[in-house]
Specification:
single chain, Aspartate Aminotransferase, domain 1, Aspartate Aminotransferase, domain 2, seven-stranded mixed sheet, three-stranded antiparallel sheet, 15 helices
Length: 408
């Protein structure tokens, strides 16, 4: 009844862990939701109002997306990246995840995935029937591959097409890729296309975000959307920006879009225009300041000789490694942590690590973003007292996790 290619696939671990957390809460267990990653902040009011104002929009929109929205995105991106993108380079999808899936379906070649990688890259590549080449990365390189490591893979068969995924700031590590220029040289040298997953780019903590597209725009597909910076994960609006040199990919994606999702919800597309034409710099900066402070708190209070972590640089994740021989797999360790502390984490195996590596992904967003932002705006500074007041579940959960780590 089922095709072999899908028999061994499982539900997305990030969505599954959210459901498990909710079930445990209903049973009365105190749960610290560090497993599922989503923005804790509300969608800016002006964008919500635009959604309300356009609720009457009930017509199918163009497959590639609403023209006015594509123009807004192209202008916004061109200004940020100092590179001219046309509205015709933009394709709107029901979340960037769907567009990535379609890209896997149409691409003919090898997929290069750094480890760790977001949980859905590999399952989508499997469904797309492309060969997957994984690159093990190192802590000292912020968990990103080096140019020489990428080149070594390509040299084994230069005739193949290659699609490399770069996700910076990264899910699950919270790190930023700092060797983009050297990677771009390899990109120009070989038949390599980059999918630059920039969904967390607006939440880069150092305010100087660099994309691989700054160095090789003609070889880079930019993938991003509203979910992380705008707090609109449930709205399901993402987009690709595809350079003219890869026009055939955009045209083919349009064909698949016409046969799958047809068009993204009309009211949401109209509302999204405000997201890219309105001034949301204060909202974004406040979000970043809060996430940076909470991430730093977690890093400083959890790091030890038994818990190794890189300091967070963007987004809302940390990737602790527990130094222990007590467990047979990171999944077994996460089950033990959940049972003993109530802290929900995702095991490193979900992101490509060997099961013997005791990595986990920790999302530090278990707090009420609306309340935190209001308190921050009144106080205009973030200290441990404010974090304890506005993110009590994070503080208690990390304390429990810290004490647990001291027993292993």
């Amino acid at each position: 009844m089922l095709k072999d290619i899908v028999k061994n696939l499982k539900p997305s671990s990030t969505l599954k862990i959210n459901e498990i957390s909710q079930q445990l809460e209903k049973k009365g267990k105190k749960i610290f939701k560090f497993g599922f990653g989503q923005s804790p902040f509300q969608v800016p009011t002006d964008i919500v109002n635009e959604l309300k104002n356009n609720a009457y929009q009930n017509k199918y929109l163009p497959m590639q997306g609403l023209l006015e929205l594509r123009k807004s995105i192209a202008n916004y991106t061109s200004n940020k990246k100092n590179y001219i993108y046309s509205f015709d380079n933009v394709i709107i999808g029901p979340g960037s995840k769907e567009l990535m899936f379609l890209l896997h379906v149409i691409f003919d070649g090898n997929i290069i995935l750094p480890v760790p990688s977001w949980v859905s890259y590999m399952p989508q590549a499997i469904i797309g029937r492309n060969k997957i080449l994984t690159l093990q990365t190192k802590r000292e390189n912020n968990w990103f591959p080096t140019a020489s490591e990428i080149e070594e893979v390509i040299k084994k068969d230069k005739k193949k097409n290659y699609l490399l995924f770069i996700n910076s700031p990264n899910n699950p590590s919270g790190q930023v890729c700092e060797n983009l220029e050297e990677i771009s040289e390899v990109t120009k040298k070989y038949n390599l296309i980059i999918l630059s997953d920039e969904i967390y780019s607006e939440l880069n903590f150092n305010n100087d975000y660099k994309s691989i597209s700054n160095f090789c725009p003609e070889k880079t597909i930019i993938s991003t959307g509203l979910s992380k910076w705008c707090g609109a994960g449930g709205w399901r609006l993402g987009y690709f920006i595809i350079p003219e040199t890869l026009k055939i990919i955009k045209e083919t994606l349009n064909v698949l879009a016409s046969e799958t999702f047809s068009a993204v919800s009309a009211p949401i597309q109209y509302a999204a225009i405000q997201a890219y034409e309105g001034d949301h710099r204060s909202y974004i900066q406040s979000s970043k300041n809060i996430l940076s402070a909470v991430g730093k708190y977690v890093y400083e209070n959890l790091s030890s000789n038994k818990v190794l972590i890189n300091k967070p640089q963007g987004g809302f994740y940390l990737m602790p490694e527990f130094i222990t021989n007590k467990f047979n797999s990171s999944s077994e360790m996460c089950s033990s942590i959940l049972e003993e502390t109530g802290v929900v984490l995702l095991p490193g195996t979900d992101f490509g690590f060997d099961k013997k590596k005791m990595f986990v992904r920790l999302s530090f967003t278990d707090f009420n973003g609306k309340n935190f932002m209001k308190e921050y705006e009144e106080k205009n500074e973030i200290d441990n007292e404010l974090i304890s007041k506005c993110a009590p579940m994070v503080v208690e959960g990390i304390d429990r996790l810290k004490k647990w780590s001291e027993t292993i």
